[in-house]
Amino acid sequence: MATDTDSETVTPDVAQFSTDTSSREEALLWVDDHLKWLMTIPAVLILFSLTFYPLLRALQFSTQSYLPTGTVFVGVENYVQLLSDGAFLNSLVVTAKFVGIAVGVEFILGFAMALVLNKKIKVRGLWQTLILIPMILSPTVIGLIWRLMYAPNGLLDFIAAPLTGGANVGWISETSVALYSVILTDIWQWTPLVVLVLFAGLQSVPDDISEAAVMDGASRRQRFMHITLPYLKSLIVLILIIRLVDALRVFAKVFILTRGGPSDATNVISMEMYRTAFRFNNFGEASAMAVSLLVLVLILAMSFVNIANVEFGS
């Protein structure tokens, strides 16, 4: 039979055990409630180290001038100098021409090819596979392949011989042709991405709505304008933003094909940043170019979304 003394000695142990159990349960409940956020910590750390930290460093570099004796804080002077830098302003014009032509042709050509593939054509699977081949190759490999094709007396000169009388065109050596040659290479590589995205969107358009429109007497053009396009609007804006951002930062193909020449005819912004940083050792101004390009990309992307009135989260 337990005595009062035994009860007094057991009660504190039971209370301590109960407190420990309660604390452990609260900790487990907290972990369970916040587990989804805890699981994202490694990804956030990697994202910060690979994206936000370099961005912060670029902002820091853009406010400094690098001298043989060390760095000097110059504030926004590097940004002001860009406004009067002829090479940078020329690179803006070249980049705008590159982006406008390349992205425009890729979208139109890709949309047309997606519409053709959406029909029940023969060996559609084979065509889909062949179309996607350029997209899976690296820009370096593509640049080397097309550099061989653009070489004097190369494949393209042979194809164009009936029009040129056998003379070399100078695909990447003539200032009037070089930029369009680089654009052609970009179109060949990235049109398949537009085809892939828009073809997937076309496959998701409900057949019953199109069939109902046909029964109501809607023409093919009316079905395309009032059924197909509204369903694809968000995808169209998305693919245009993706291609716009990627085209603005094109570098590998230009570097391999032309090095920005001849006579700066293909000197896009990324190429000018490379020259400024590693040829002239002006890392401050090169960083200012990079930050300016980032701001330009954000403005253009937001403008696309606002003009199209698209909400990707809906």
TrEMBL record:
GO terms for biological process: transmembrane transport. It is found in: Cell membrane. Residues 92-306 form the ABC transmembrane type-1 domain. The chain crosses the membrane at residues 37-56, 98-117, 129-149, 187-206, 227-245, 288-308. It is a multi-pass membrane protein. Keywords: Cell membrane, Membrane, Transmembrane, Transmembrane helix, Transport. InterPro entries: MetI-like, MetI-like_sf. One of its GO terms (cellular component) is plasma membrane. Belongs to the binding-protein-dependent transport system permease family. This is Sugar ABC transporter permease.
